[in-house]
C-alpha cells in the first residue's frame, strides 16, 4: 500500500470511530478498542484529532467549552496522553450533548412492505421493502442513516437545521428537497425529484457533487462518486407503486431488490453472474415476471428448489 493509501486508510478508521460514537452513542473515553487504536501510532492520534476538529462546529465548541474543566496532568503524563485525554473528553462531550440528545429511532420494514412515516420536523419518509433506517433529531441538525434498503425523503425546508443522510460510505446534505436513496449490494443510488442534494463520498471527502432535481448519481460501496446524470425513465420513488425499471444495471443489484419484495429468495449460482448488466422492467411483487424478463435478456436458466429458493445459473451452450 502506498503512503497516500495508508494515510487515507487511517483517516477512514478515524472517521469510523467518530461515526460509531455519533450513531450509537458510545463514549470513546471508555472504549478499550478505541484507546488501543489511538495509542497504536502517532499517525492514528493525528488523524483522529484533525477529523474531530473538522467535524466539530465552531459555534458548538464555543457553547460547550465551559463544560470542559482543565485538570493538572500527573507528573509522568506524556504530551500524547494529555492530547488523548483532551480530544477524547471533547469528543465525548460533543457526542453526549449534541449527537446523542436522544438515541436514534430505528424504523424497519418486512419483505414486501412499503411504509410511510411523518417525522417530527415535518418531513415525510417512505421505506421500501426490507429497509432499515435510523433517524435522529437535534435542535441544530437532522440525521438519517440508511442501513439497508431504500427510502424516499421529502425534507421540510429549514436552513438553520440541515438534514444529513448517510448510506454506507456516502453522505448527503440537504435543506429542503425530495429525493430517494437506495443502498444496494455494491453501490448507493441517489435520485432527486426536487431541490438540490449535496453528495460526498468517503474516498474523496473534499469533492462534493451537487445533484439537482431531475438528476441522479451513483456511488460505489467504497464511496467513489460518479458524475450526476439525468434520471432514467422511472422517476425516483416510483418503486412505491411497485414498478421497477433498470437500465444497464448489474444483475446482483436487481436480484437484491427483488429479494426485498418476495418471500421466495433468488440466488446466483455463480457470483460472476452478478457482474452481468441488463435493462429490464417488471412489477416488484411479480417474481415470475422478473425471471422471465431476465431469461429473455440474459443467457440464464432458472432452478427451483424444494425449499422454495430460486437459483439462477448461466445457460450452457452446446
Automatic annotation (TrEMBL):
- Which regions form coiled coils? none
Please indicate which superkingdom the organism of origin belongs to: Bacteria
- Alphabetically list the UniProt keywords: Membrane, Transmembrane, Transmembrane helix
Q: Boundaries of each FecR protein domain copy?
A: 106-198
Please give the Pfam families that the UniProt record associates with this protein: FecR
Residue ranges annotated as transmembrane are 83-101
- Which organism does this record belong to? Steroidobacter flavus
Stated name of the protein: FecR family protein
Q: Which InterPro entries match?
A: FecR (IPR006860), Ferrdict_sens_TM (IPR012373)
Amino acid at each position: 500500500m502506498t503512503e497516500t493509501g495508508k494515510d487515507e486508510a487511517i483517516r477512514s478508521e478515524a472517521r469510523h470511530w467518530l461515526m460509531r460514537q455519533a450513531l450509537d452513542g458510545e463514549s470513546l473515553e471508555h472504549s478499550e478498542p478505541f484507546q488501543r487504536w489511538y495509542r497504536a501510532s502517532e499517525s492514528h492520534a493525528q488523524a483522529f484529532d484533525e477529523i474531530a476538529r473538522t467535524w466539530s462546529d465552531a459555534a458548538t465548541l464555543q457553547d460547550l467549552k465551559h463544560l470542559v474543566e482543565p485538570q493538572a496532568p500527573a507528573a509522568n503524563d506524556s504530551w500524547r496522553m494529555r492530547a488523548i485525554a483532551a480530544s477524547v473528553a471533547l469528543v465525548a462531550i460533543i457526542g453526549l450533548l449534541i449527537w446523542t440528545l436522544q438515541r436514534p429511532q430505528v424504523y424497519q420494514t418486512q419483505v414486501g412492505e412499503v411504509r410511510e412515516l411523518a417525522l417530527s420536523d415535518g418531513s415525510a419518509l417512505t421505506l421500501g421493502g426490507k429497509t432499515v433506517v435510523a433517524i435522529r433529531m437535534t435542535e441544530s441538525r437532522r440525521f438519517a442513516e440508511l442501513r439497508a434498503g431504500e427510502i424516499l425523503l421529502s425534507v421540510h425546508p429549514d436552513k438553520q437545521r440541515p438534514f444529513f443522510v448517510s448510506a454506507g460510505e456516502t453522505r448527503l446534505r440537504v435543506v429542503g428537497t425530495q429525493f430517494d436513496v437506495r443502498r444496494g449490494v455494491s453501490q448507493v443510488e441517489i435520485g432527486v425529484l426536487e431541490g438540490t442534494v449535496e453528495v460526498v463520498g468517503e474516498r474523496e471527502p473534499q469533492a462534493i457533487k451537487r445533484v439537482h432535481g431531475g438528476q441522479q448519481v451513483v456511488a460505489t460501496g467504497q464511496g467513489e462518486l460518479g458524475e450526476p446524470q439525468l434520471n432514467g425513465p422511472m422517476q425516483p420513488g416510483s418503486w412505491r407503486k411497485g414498478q421497477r425499471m433498470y437500465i444497464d444495471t448489474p444483475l446482483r443489484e436487481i436480484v437484491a431488490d427483488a429479494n426485498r419484495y418476495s418471500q421466495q429468495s433468488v440466488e446466483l449460482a455463480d457470483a460472476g453472474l452478478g457482474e452481468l448488466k441488463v435493462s429490464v422492467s417488471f412489477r416488484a411483487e411479480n417474481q415470475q415476471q422478473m425471471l422471465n424478463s431476465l431469461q429473455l435478456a440474459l443467457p440464464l436458466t432458472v432452478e427451483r428448489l424444494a425449499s422454495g429458493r430460486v437459483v439462477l445459473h448461466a445457460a450452457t451452450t452446446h
